[in-house]
Every structure is written in structure tokens, then in C-alpha cells.
Specification:
The protein is α/β, with parallel strands linked by helices and 235 residues long. It has helices spanning 11-22, 38-48, 59-69, 82-87, 100-118, 139-152, 176-194, 199-204, 209-221, and strands at 2-6, 26-30, 51-53, 73-76, 123-127, 158-162, 228-231. The two termini are 22 Å apart. Helix 1 (11-22) crosses helix 9 (209-221) and helix 3 packs across helix 5. It has a seven-stranded parallel beta sheet with strand order 3-2-1-4-5-6-7, sandwiched between helices. It is built from nine helices and seven strands. Strand 2 (26-30), helix 2 and strand 3 form a beta-alpha-beta unit. It has two domains: 2-166 and 208-234, 3-Layer(aba) Sandwich (Rossmann fold); 169-206. The chain binds NADP nicotinamide-adenine-dinucleotide phosphate. The site of NADP nicotinamide-adenine-dinucleotide phosphate has 25 residues, from helix 1 and helix 5.
């Protein structure tokens, strides 16, 4: 099996690369060419047995890469955060250039177009988020919905996964609010479960990158997951 992983440098992405490589897959880990940590990623992914690709985020260039790699599965695990947006380059009006729409939606849509242009029949696995939908109120939720719509309308066989909180002690990047929400939320959900209400724990518990990566890889291999949106309780 050959896999192309976009967003390979993220908390989830690097575990997906590790999980696939450990299972003996040929893995191409995509790293943006201007990443300040490119050499570090080359050595980390190289040690896992994965190959690094640095094609710029451009549909035609990505299509050429996908056509050459011929992946069976493409994982799209990219997304920005409010903190990254604050530090992103700004337009002349002071607005961030790397918004949820530009990154979470447009890069996902670009990758689906690249797969279609490359004319490869690969499973497209998209890591979305709980709470998205046609009536999502936040910019994040709206961008995620537009990204999902691009995936669903691409013509590729797709699987969408919607976790609630992705968190673990080994994230590396300091995200205190997310970590607190995961730890306190999970404690409350476990208490409810002990009191005889197990449903919320199954539906809303946080998940760490290792467990999520294993679920993403499993779903990518399961023909029953084609055309399905997997929620937290399915993982
Ligand atoms: N955290 C949560 O609780 C949660 C919950 C549900 C869903 N999600 C979604 O799940 C996805 C994965 O989560 P995660 O926590 O593993 O993400 P993460 O650690 O924040 O990694 C994000 C990935 O996206 C890439 N990226 C960000 N901005 C980019 C840009 N402008 N151009 C190209 N690549 C860019 C990053 O590359 P660089 O390393 O080069 O910046 C990195 O590979 C995210 O999209 C997130 O929105 C997160």
C-alpha cells in the first residue's frame, strides 16, 4: 500500500506516518517547502522509513506529484489554529492570510482537485471536526463544512472523520485550553458513565493522536467506510 500524507508534520499527521510505516506501507509525508523545520522532519520521517515530499501547495504541482507517487490512500490532515492566524502574514488591511478558509477549506479542496487531475483512484481520508455542518456558526465550523463538501463532491472515494478534541500529553505544542478541556471534560464524561450514562463518553471523549491515527488507517483500509462520515463513537 502507498499513502500520501498531507499535514504530516501535525500532531495527528506524524502518528499517521508512524502507524503506516510500522505496518509496512510506502509512505510519502508531505512537508511544506518553506517549513523552518524541514531538515528535522526529513530526519524524523526518514528514521520511520517514510519519504519526504516538499511539493508546494499548488494544484498542478501536487497533481504531478500524486501522479508520480500513485497513492492508494491520500490523508488530508491540514488545518490552522487561531494562534497560527495571529502570527500569519497579513494583507495590506492587516487581515491574516492564513485563515480557516484559506487553509482548512482551500488546501483540502486543492488536494482533492490534484488527485482528480492526477487521475488516480485513491481513497481520500479527510480529518474534519465535530460540530461542523451546513448551519455551523463559527468560521472554523463553516470552513470545515466547505472542505467536507469539496471532498464529497470530488468524485473520489472518500472517508471523513470528525473527532471532538484531539489531545494527549505528548502533543509538543503548548495548548493549555485544549488540554484542560480534554482532561476536565473526559473526567466529567467518565463520571457520567459510572453513574449509568455511558453515551456521552462514547460521543464526546477526547482522543490522542496514536488512537486517532490507528482509527484513520483502519478506516482507510475498510471498504465499508467509503462514503461515510465517522463520528467520535465510531473510532
Ligand atoms: N485539536 C483538536 O482538538 C481538533 C479537533 C478536531 C479536529 N481537528 C482538526 O484536525 C486536524 C489535525 O489536527 P492536529 O491537532 O493534528 O493539527 P496540527 O498539529 O495543528 O497540525 C496541522 C497541520 O496542518 C499544517 N498546516 C497548517 N497551516 C498550514 C498552511 N498554511 N499551509 C500548509 N500546511 C499547513 C501544519 O503544517 P506545519 O507543521 O508546516 O505548520 C500541520 O502539518 C486539524 O485540521 C484540526 O483542525 C483538531
Amino acid at each position: 500500500m502507498t499513502a500520501f500524507v498531507a499535514g504530516a508534520t501535525g500532531y495527528t499527521g506524524r502518528e499517521v506516518v508512524r502507524c503506516l510505516a510500522a505496518a509496512g506501507a510506502r509512505v510519502v509525508a508531505h512537508v511544506r517547502p518553506d517549513s523552518p523545520r524541514l531538515e528535522e522532519w526529513r530526519s524524523r520521517f526518514g528514521a520511520m522509513g517514510a519519504q519526504v515530499d516538499t511539493t508546494p501547495w499548488n494544484a498542478a504541482l501536487l497533481a504531478a506529484t500524486i501522479a508520480a507517487v500513485r497513492p492508494d490512500v491520500v490523508f488530508c490532515l491540514v488545518g490552522t489554529t487561531r494562534r497560527r492566524m495571529r502570527h500569519s502574514p497579513k494583507d495590506p488591511f492587516g487581515r491574516p492570510l492564513e485563515t480557516y478558509d484559506c487553509v482548512d477549506h482551500e488546501l483540502t479542496a486543492m488536494l482533492t482537485r490534484a488527485c482528480v487531475m492526477a487521475d488516480v483512484s485513491c481513497r481520500f481520508v479527510y480529518l474534519s471536526a465535530a460540530g461542523t455542518g451546513p448551519k455551523a456558526r463559527t468560521r472554523y465550523g463553516q470552513a470545515r463544512w466547505r472542505a467536507e463538501e469539496a471532498v464529497r463532491s470530488s468524485g473520489l472515494p472518500w472517508t471523513i472523520v470528525r473527532p471532538v478534541i484531539i489531545s494527549g500529553p505528548n502533543r509538543g505544542e503548548w495548548r493549555p485550553l485544549e488540554r484542560a478541556a480534554a482532561v476536565l471534560g473526559d473526567a466529567a464524561l467518565r463520571l457520567l458513565s459510572h453513574l449509568g450514562f455511558p453515551g456521552p463518553l462514547r460521543r464526546f471523549a477526547s482522543i490522542d493522536a496514536q488512537a486517532l491515527a490507528a482509527a484513520l488507517v483502519r478506516a482507510s483500509q475498510d471498504p465499508l467506510c467509503v462514503g461515510r462520515v465517522l463520528q467520535r463513537s465510531d473510532l
